[in-house]
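Suppose a colleague, Dr. K., hands you the sequence of a protein chain of 286 amino acids and asks what its three-dimensional shape might be. Before reaching for any lab equipment, you can write down a predicted structure in token form. Begin with the sequence itself:
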Amino acid sequence: MFNKDNKILACIDGSKYSQSVCDYAAWISQRTGAPLQLLHNLEHPTGASTGDLSGAIGLGSRDTLLQELTEVEEQRNRLLMEQGKLMLSTAKERIGQDGTEATTKQRHGSLTESLIEMEEDIRVLVLGIRGEEHEQDNQHLGAHLEATIRSLHRPILVVNSEFKVPENVMLAYDGSGASSKALDMLAQSPLFKGIPVHLVTVGEDPAGANTLQHKATEVLQAAGHKVTSVTLDGKPSEALVNYQAEHDIDLTLMGAFSHTRLRELVLGSLTAKVLLKSNKPLLLLR
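The predicted structure, expressed as tokens, is then:
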């Protein structure tokens, strides 16, 4: 359950996705009225530390060299902090051009750990599919993405393309608890008010699919949505990605865990396929 102080949290860095992350986060903030916060997380260096080098340094020069190495590392951290503050300032200025206000925050350490600590204050998390270190690697997901999805119980919007105001959305629905949360979000959140919904079920038996879709369609129509209900065959990842492309779906919602064939979609090999093959954002719920 959210309260009025829960934030739309946008994670930014130097990657090509950061501008789109800001734009989608600003759109969510505008539609929901929720406050927006921009986060830059400064990871601790993963390379060798000065302590790792101490055994290889001669006794006579060790103390002096270690001091110099420490000073270099401190200077590097200061520069990275200033770079992060500049990113936050630029991002805040960008979203402020259309009147959206935002606060900024800078943290240190593991991004996933930072998000876990902030979870109670998050309404929706928005982040890019990859960070700046891996943005050219189109064969893999970002290093923090899976860990973040596994750890947080908040809606997570994964951004993988330039911003476009969603004119339609797709719900991958299988009746599980997680996909039912996505259904409730569609029906109740002002974020999706008035946006047409493609209700898609994959790989269910016809009778079960009809029952699922009938109940979900009633919920969405009662909330004022125009609904297109579809049952697809085949592998869930391929079926959903193909349907998304064929119907030019702007944003897809699905549950992060499930007890049917869609279960493999998130946090498994099929999830990676959906995220890697799709060129539109994916909103995950647990």
